[in-house]
Amino acid sequence: MNFHLLTLFPEAIKPYFDSSLLGKAQEKGIVKIFLHQLRDYATDKHCSVDDRPYGGGSGMILKPDVVVCAVRDLRQKHKIDRVILLSPRGALFTQAGARELSDIQSVLLICGRYEGVDQRAIDLVVDEELSIGDYVLSGGELAAAVVVDAVARLIPGVLGNEKATLDESHTVGAHGCAPLLEYPHYTRPEEFEGMKVPEVLLSGNHAEIEKWRREESLKITCKNRPDLLKKK
Hints:
The chain is an alpha/beta fold. The chain has helices at about 10-15, 20-30, 65-80, 95-100, 120-125, 140-150, 200, 205-225, and strands at about 1-5, 30-35, 50, 60, 80-90, 105-110, 115, 130, 190, 195. A hairpin with a 2-residue loop joins β9 (about 190) and β10 (about 195). The longest helix has 19 residues, at about 205-225. The mean pLDDT is about 95.
């Protein structure tokens, strides 16, 4: 899968993509990540990409001509299947959304900056807007990195064990049940500062272990994210 990021600060996120699982996935050729500098598409001598908002207000707005030119050029050159703008006002990015994107061959992620992007650019070249949460970041670079990471790890070969993603937090359970948060994990030593590993995990009884994990997932979900239990 190919990820293209349109950004003003490629140097801010490149080290993350070059390390750990994403770095190894790129070395294997499973995924490819391309960083494109938005300023390369500016047309004036100052390489301006933003301007003051009509109607007044604080902040600056990314110019429509620059954004549209960049997206159209990249879409043509790289056969982009979907263009996504990372924005606080976008639809919430979910695990289900990550799985849907993992089936796409090539995606372009626009990293928003400043006060936002001119609406005309959004209307002309953006397929959808996504948000990674109900808060505002200084720019879309971190949000884009989150999307790339969440999607890439679902692509066969990236983790090395595709079954590892089946019972993670936010993954839809059997028979279309609501997604639950993941159960607690334990490893050696068996006892640490007076706290012991639950006996059921030492029993070797896989049916009881599965039952315990399900019950713990329900408890944690009820405590931390009761809204998930209302989903169908």
